[in-house]
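Sequence, structure tokens reproduced for reference:
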Amino acid sequence: MPDSSEIAVPKPGITRLPIQKIKGDSLQATSDPVAIEDPLEIRIQYGPAGRRQEQSLSVTMRTPGNDEELALGWLYTEGIVQTTAKDVLTRSTPNTITILLPEGPAPDLSRSQRHSYTSSSCGVCGKTSLDSLQADIPKTADTGLAIPATLLYSLPNLLRESQDIFDATGGLHAAGLFDHQGRLMALREDIGRHNALDKLIGHAAQQQWLPASQTILLLSGRACFELIQKAAIAGIKMVVAVGPPSSLAVKHAEDTGITLVGFLRQQRFNIYSGAHRIHI
């Protein structure tokens, strides 16, 4: 039988499942905390007064929690929501969230519609065309962000110490936003790496932090094209990843003027673009 600590009420985003634990030649019936993966339908309501329309845009697999931020961040990086978060309202059920845009002209949804399903591992797999991958990146001024290389060394531990769901399950990605002095501003976790970043950008929009040109984005895993694209749309000028970048991520970072760092581990890292912002 599991002890009392094992049957405690789980945290949001976590469930406990019965398992057979094998150690050596012994078997124990117990339970284990597991990260939840559930579908979330993102809907949008738009149009002028008296002629409001509602449409489903995406179904994504995500870890429940911060769903409003997830939807808002996704819509922001898709170019659908370009105003501040205070201008939009939300309506939600457990697995559906609807963003209610202010009354006015309909947004352009042609480049952001998915085929209907987005997996938790890839946010661009359902794009309706290759052209839609090349989102229009808003121009943001280079505000002169520059940091000492040693500042980066402490960031992975700060991120890891704040990953509550990862502590329990060991199975989630994280995205954290730091200020130019290395202080953690916000962190979001999700089973999907792009969802974690959408949640973080949605939170930044709610806090009126965008464009976040004086911040450092830390990714708990690898840096792929879509994460760099989302960072660029949010005005982030420095992206640091614990894992490696892809070739397209490096190219997109160069094209959008982002400093991209990979393999940040054990007081070492590689700079793939924008080395002028890091002082050795």
Notes: The CA atoms of residues 211 and 235 lie 4 Å apart. The first strand starts at residue 14 and ends at 23. The first helix runs from residue 67 to 77.
